[in-house]
Amino acid sequence: YGETVILQDVSFTVAEGERFVILGGSGCGKSTLLRHLIGLQPPLAGTIRLRGVDITRADDTARRAVLRNIGVLFQGGALFSSMTVAENIALPLENATDLSRSQIEDLVRIKLSLVGLAGFENHYPGELSGGMRKRAGLARALALNPAILFFDEPSAGLDPLTSAELDELIIALNQTLHTTMVIVTHELASIFAIAQRVIMLDKGSRTIIASGDPHWLRDHHKNPWVQNFFNRRPSSAS
To answer: Would you identify the CATH topology of the domain 1-69+147-207+222-231?
Structure first.
């Protein structure tokens, strides 16, 4: 941004079907990296390959085809308040497919059932709890059967029990659908529950300072800041 470098020399791969977490302290560039990955903001340098296609250099047709294969659960759910839950989930199906109305309605019911919201088709987002809105947003993200799901702080604004239930749902969907999942979060309970592998961004160096299994990083990484982060230990106590 201007003269400020947010990220540099950030390089990683995500395995197909993996639950992969991007984490770090405030201001480390997590949100910027997510915007790059989902195609909302092109990077100033480097490449981003999704399913083998470099979306930073692909033509519009190829880029749209790749981005259609991803789903995103935004932090607040990003549901349209004037539309019912069913209408929200149907929207990508109406815009990106030639399915009939009855086929779309069937798929909406299937997606809602997957996230534990069967029977809530005619509710409006304002009638749902925070956790239910996240589930409805997840159902919409799943509408087109994406190969990759991105999550932006999925536990934000949720109480610990609701957050744990959402973590369990994410794991169950990953195991059932074999969808690759990339989660941006700093919630330690969710990280230890969900992540098979993580990368940790650092605000000071603007790059990745740790990667691997979060339990191993907590117990064995030699960087004091990394250990303090995973153990919720203030730097002054190390």
So the answer is: Rossmann fold (3.40.50)
